[in-house]
Amino acid sequence: MQHYIMNLTLKVWRQRNASDAGHFETYPVEGISSEMSFLEMIDVLNEKLLKEGKEPIAFDHDCREGICGMCSMYINGRPHGPWHNNTTCQLHMRAYQDGDTIVIEPWRANSFPVIKDLMVDRGAFDRIIQAGGFISVNTGSAVDANAIPVEKEKADYAFAAAACIGCGACVAACKNSSAMLFVAAKVSHLALLPQGHPEKKKRALSMVAQMDKEGFGACTNTGACEAVCPKGISIENIARLNREYMMAGLAENE
Amino acid sequence: MIDSKIPTGQLEHKWTDYKGHCKLVNPANKRKLEVIVVGTGLAGASAAASLGELGYQVKAFCFQDSPRRAHSIAAQGGINAAKNYQNDGDSVFRLFYDTIKGGDYRAREANVHRLAEVSANIIDQCVAQGVPFAREYGGLLNNRSFGGTQVKRTFYAAGQTGQQLLIGAYQALERQVALGKVEMYTRHEMLDVVVIDGKAQGIISRNLITGQLERHFGHAVLLCTGGYGNVFYLSTNAMGSNVTAAWKAHKKGAHFGNPCFTQIHPTCIPVSGDHQSKLTLMSESLRNDGRIWVPALQNDKRAPNDIPEEERDYFLERRYPAFGNLVPRDVASRAAKERCDAGYGVGTTGQAVYLDFKHNLIHKYGKAEANKLAIANPDTDTLIKLGKEVVKEEYGNLFDMYEKITGENPYEVPMRIYPAVHYTMGGLWVDYELMTSVKGLYALGEANFSDHGANRLGASALMQGLADGYFVIPYTIGNYLADEIATKPIPTTHPAFTEAEQKVSERINRLLSIKGKQTVESFHKRLGKIMWDKCGMARGEKGLKEAIVEIGQLKAEFWSDVLIPGGSDEMNLELDKAGRVADFIELGELMCQDALDRKESCGGHFREESQTEEGEAKRNDEHYSYVAVWEYMEESKWQLHKEALHFEVAKPTQRSYK
Amino acid sequence: MKWSALFNSSVGRKWTMGLTGIFLILFLIVHVGLNACIWAMDGGVMFNKAAHFMGANVVPRLLELGLFAGFLLHIIQGWSLELTNRAARKKGYAVSMGNKGSKWYSRSMGILGTLLFLFLVMHLAHFWVPSRITGLKPVLIDGKEFHNLYGEMLSVFQGNLIVVVLYTIGCISLAWHLMHGFQSAFRTLGVSNPRYLRIIESAGVVFSIVISMVFALMPISMYAGWIK
Question: Do B413 and B427 have their domain in common?
Fold first, then answer.
């Protein structure tokens, strides 16, 4: 692999706090190696800003290996940047060429208010999980792990859905700011497993109710969420959620 | 002085006896007791959820934006449990024995046995929560093997086991939040423990969004804040992983156990340049199917696929025929370092070895698949194609991760790997009940020193975190809180809270007032370099002494020249980082002290002065069969206490994997 | 859960869209089938008979009421959803995501639907209003009196390029609307099996193109004088 050095122009959204209006700032960055990760490139810029007596850019990140779901950034019109099945922290600078301009914005959705610069509040996702994204089993009351065999195909589907990292790229990409892929992934993960069956109706109903309450839009099946999901979660899950939800809703007794 | 409160009686009955006799708190009283849990990784989330279920009023804290982000999420390979589903001779005793031996006889027998005992319950609990472990076609759970063992006892979910387990614990936690039993504080960092009359009674935390300092009362405080590998700057830990909570507790009287015990993981993606901000692990499970080699010739610059079989040195298989590529991590790391230091390393830096899957792609998986499909005499390309499918299912995400970082396709070209700091076996000293030397202050998971001795075996960290949180603390905390039912919640206007908050605030203001020229990051990098060079994979007396001096100088420089913009009453990420780096600097000094004191090699701690003729670690049981328990006296001054280790069942022998 | 809560939820509202959408797709099949009688080359006899049946028989008349209800629900719900969804992101992006991940027509259902609504108003004014309200000239077929809807078609389309163009635009809008709507409706109703989704997607593409083309050919055939 050929490595190279590049100079870039960054246009970054700066916003002091939630109540600030915010604006774009343009920064030149020089001597960026193609081997750097995207966030390491921002680190370089931040170090430079610090030395110039300016405030560094605030952005969320933690594991930097694509699994914690903390990093965000809407890069040149795409959540997590140009690569598929990828998080911002895993994006590497070989995706860019010398002279490129990169525009970086925070996730945009009313339900994800900006905290500072590129950081947003994704607490809505936690509240959706609180509404029912779990199996109610107290510690200590579980039966032997092999007592209930689970069809491998279903277990694999459940795993594929459970791979969601809760980053919110689906919401950021969706023209409706819909959180359906996130909710569907959780509902699917738990509904596909026998352990999740007893609560599946209540789960689907409560999680969707909370999602609506949080102000996310409705799904119109455009598929943008699936295209940007770092974990490749399929929108088939959304169809499954639709089914689970309506079956549960229609079967209600009251 | 050091009382580890290990129950008397036979090893295999200790935990059962303890549970049968420890004090209980009745449900009505549990409602009146408040517990603070700091950190929401496997240990913290499982503890907070379980205590909430029991009826305690829990407050949980994490510095990330959601409890689901904790770095347990990044654990890849799996979780051990003595289920013996494979009928290959596993048992609680074997898991206990492997862990003690793997830890090079520097862990407590009683703790490790308890860990092995509850390991099976963890799997049951997680499956019931909906953790989608890998399964066989019959619908039953699958296992893989990990380093340092000869059975298959590792449960896994592709290369994302930590994620799935954490999501399970996180969901259990959120369920308690919804039920009002747990109050969750995200983007909050604990900055001090409040100790009143020798008992931990609360914490001071900082709201990282507003900068506000807050006081929280608790009848007990649980620190589940993970390890401190980031003292080395580059490690496989998350960027935010830090020692601050544990360090504050240490300074408030909680002793630190075996601080120098650090695990260097053999299979990480090598450093690519100065810009490097963190290192990425490639799961140990890859060593099930990948073979590690270097060219047999020094400075061989040929592409790996151009080097013929007979000119490759499969050095682990050569040196350790019995365990081969699956020797424990410390052994594998040192062997790789030895080859690279001797000039056989590969890649542009020469600081890497190959992890090659081709052999197993063809011979193991390819052939098995061809047999299944009844393909007679398949050619190599067919075998590779068939093998790839299987490998993809097992490790697909890891291979993708590797390719994203390096731009190379590991299905075609061998991975380049090199050891990197991964886990810290040391941590806050705790007794059998997981209580630190401060009453009512507990440490769980990687934050404590307990179960892994001088080297942790693969797939044991997840096991320990969840064991502590789900199955140990719910019992042991009751034994303490039963005596606290009469304690009324202390108002946070109490002078101890005021004083603690004032101290925190003073320190923040001091940091902000320096207004120096050097960035926090640059100090962290320098600290990391000192630690890696002198207190890393090999440690010598001379280097350690130098390191202590250098760290002292670095500390002085930090406190006079660090550059932190912004104020204290707003979000200030540089300030957050500065506080953590300041603590890392102090910890670094203690680690070097500890490493200097332990003049033996054991597990991950390799003292150059103490090795066999073949270059293996040489333990000194006569003088060092103890836990080094460090008590904080004053700045840069510690007192060493020794907790003697007694091995009644697993008699220490020279660890051999040959 | 109350009915109102169920059908006011985001999923419930989409479900209404999907159900009415499929109902309207079924209507399109009936509509295109009947209208295809204009190509019987019999001077509109078969077509007028068919139209008469639809207008005189009680069953189609009742279905017509359902059809109106379906249209109204689909249109009102669609607009209302579009407004809710747009409002979920008050501050937008400086760089649009564009086609990186979704098809333009899947993002443009509101606009396409509005175009179709405008077309519908024109279409009703052209044919439904005269045939049901203001009345059409009678024509004698086999000695019986029928409304001459065929004649009305000829008079609307022949020599009237603008109308033909507007109808063609309507049909193109319909094609794109269906291209997304057909498969989306099934997804919304809960078809998650990839095997069936693949069939539905292909069927959707064929259906959208064929049905819109056949509709478009009607005014074109008349304008071009292929049928008289």
Answer: no
